[in-house]
Amino acid sequence: MKFLKIILINYLFYKIRTKCMELENDQEVLRFTLICPECGLGNPENAEYCMVCERNLLETVLFFEDDSFDVEITKDCFIEYRKTFWGENRTGKVNKYLLDEMEDMEFGSEITRFRFTYHGKKYVLPLKRENMELLVKILK
Ligand SMILES: [Zn+2]
User: Fold this and answer.
1) What's domain 59-139's architecture?
2) What ranges do the domains of the chain cover?
3) What pTM does this model have?
4) What is the CA(43)–ligand 1 centre distance, in A?
């Protein structure tokens, strides 16, 4: 009799768990994970334009936030949005490099520094490892 009770309880738990999973799957979860490179707002994943600044979000090939700047890559440009020393706010300074004119790109592996030459000048950007991996996928 006791054995039967355990089976019954287990069965009930199993039923409740599957019901919960069904409910979770049914719900359309709207995630605001698409960060607008222009104003930093999180938009729904499938948004075409930013809800606040109306920036075209389809132009962005890659966007990530790093310690001292945010980086956006579009079809033609590598854009660096400078941030304050503490990395919390942007300074308003934006550096834009045309991808076609970036030369000698190097993706440092031990210490993750992205180096390139642009119009004869050398640039070095220190990046977080995970961001460097994203960058390599797009630019290499
Ligand atoms: Zn925006």
Assistant:
1) Roll (2.30)
2) 59-139
3) 0.69
4) 8
